[in-house]
Sequence to fold (494 residues):
Amino acid sequence: MRMMSYGIEDKPRLAVAFPLAFQHVLSAFTGQIAVGMLLAMGFGLSVKETALLIQCALFITGIATIIQSFGIGKHIGARLPIVSGGSFTLITPMVVAANNPNIGIGGAFGAALVGSGVLFILGPIAIRYLHKYFSPTVTGAVVLTVGICIGATAFGNFNVESETAMTELAIAVMVVVVIVLLNFFGKGLIKQCCILIGMVIGYVVAAALGMVDFSSIGEASWFSMVKPFAWGVNFNVGAILTICAVHIGTLMEMVGDTTGLVTAGSNRLPTSEELSRTIRGGGITGMFASAFNGAPVITGSANVGIVAMTGVGSRFVTGLGGIIFLAFAVFPKLAQLLALIPNCVMAGAVLVMCGQISASGLRVISMGDFTERNTTILAIALAIGIGNAHGFYNGPVDIRVEVLEECRKFTDIPFVLHGCTGMDEELVKRSIDSGVAKINFGTQVRCQYVNYLKEGLAEGKDQGHAWKLSQYAELRLREDIKDIIRLAGSKEKA
Fold:
């Protein structure tokens, strides 16, 4: 285990803390924008309404990060170096609820509000009784698989057939090399800010090569405040129960992220009280998020890798990161500058951070005994990965559904198919019939959105306005989203 430059309670001076905090912001920024955009797309919102949701996502991330870093009283907030953010897991049930005419957008936020309240009350109770079952093998496997899964998607946005594919790959590799070299050979603040420096260099190179269009910055406003309950709020029992069920998954995510952080920073497992404080913090910030038009927030995974790699585990650094997020939320021009970070730059940084997350998982696993029982648990947890499609391939996507079907004979635990781009529809349906309860269509949706942008531009749908082009793409994408909902068998289930 590496020596920590700053422990949990250490307070670096502001000149040092700011760049350290900023790299946490960079690592989480695009993800939070994505949360707002996906919600807006699923809700069928206008460009102006989409901008509001993105602003709210940044605002919520800032508040949640401050609460988890500094805490409220003795029992709310982890008081650990946590960067929180909107949960991708909860987007799908919220979108399904919002598109039900009997529920609507207000009902989706109402369900998320109540669900977060239930998490706040019952989550710590569940942890108190289940904590003894969270052995190093179990929690380590969770942390390890999080790192592997996120890392596998790091290069998922690359279009290998594009003219700039090799340039993008070269920039991503350059970012990785810069981060690793600075981490190995850098000293002091240079070493601690290796991720920030790597991303800045990648951003500058990409901009110099003409890969960044800064025109959108001029269109953004200088100052804007968020608006709570912009779509009102109402409550539907079915939607509430669905959100509560999905929160079981977010509970495990928070346990895994907290374990990774504590292990990386202190080389120990988190206590039951630390986990309880984290979950209470997630519950109360989730309620706050619902009030401010966003998806409930959970702990972030990327900053686990930052803590492990940089040796900076100060909660005051991440708390400052939360304040920076608030600044971006109310100054849209600044936010737009970071929103333009190319995917290839982010991919390089994410790949390194996810490697560190996976290493933290292995460190947790090593704290336990490698008995036959624990080895079997670990083997099943890792081997259950039947294959995922995170991009477009030259041949058919081969998912071993027969493995799922065999596993279903021994357990009723829901399975997750982390990616299914390019899969045959019958294969998707067969996977669902075999116990898959969550499927990601992210790459497919993003690429289709870009295709519609190109289509609209070619047909002159923009009429000289970027927002009209975006609106055209969003309207075209709605039907694809409806097809996905029908394919998954989720129509009218919320």
The chain has 20 helices and four strands. The first helix runs from residue 14 to 43. The chain has a mean pLDDT of 78.
